[in-house]
Amino acid sequence: MKKLFIIGKMNDVMKNLAEYMQQHFRVQLCMENTQHAAALMKVVEPDLVIILLVGVYEIDMNIFNALSKDCKGLPVITIGTQREYDSFSAHLKGVNCENIIRPVNNSDILEAVCRRLGMSKEEAGLMAVEEKDRRRHVLLVDDDPVSLRSIKSMLEDRYRISLANSGTKAMIAIGKDRPDLILLDYEMPVCDGRQTLTMIREDEDLKDIPVIFLTGVNDRKNIEAVLTLKPAGYILKPPVPERLKASIDKALSENS
Hints:
Number of strands: 10
CATH architecture of the largest domain: 3-Layer(aba) Sandwich
Number of domains: 2
């Protein structure tokens, strides 16, 4: 599955474009902290970069130095008015760049991206479907519906997510569709995280599923109580998306 790197200010245009492109590609956004874009691109190793030129003067010029020096040949698509592009053109020398004049719809942007990547929109869609089918299955267990929605939105681009709002329902869900990893809220009424983990480990078929605790209580006594259960990890709520994903990937790799 091809990777896109989208740089710009977070607004409705960027949000809508990212959501649309996620149906066909892996998407990494670089928003307010654009000064980190050059370093982040080296980590992500994208197949194509999209730069939204709205608020062009607020974008760090180091991005373009990186594109012309460290990322030679990487296809770049800028999206902006002719005036916005003209303000930038001097910084794009040596960059494999195409500008799309806005206003433009997402379908036309997708067509341009696919053309630059040497593929059809149908091929991009098929690759996305195949990628989703191979995603690891994560069961998220939390009695708080806001947390369920929030964490699901953080992770669903990378993993297949199932939800349960209690320990009892988690056990039923595990029996129907065995997850590769469980994110388990430690503080839940009736059947809490400790009790749920005990039930999982007492089942011979489930005991090896890695479990990462989510806890909203950040004090030494609580953390020590969590760690005595020897989970695959623990994350303080509300979780930081990149740290949460890194913890999941680490636990999955150690369990593979």
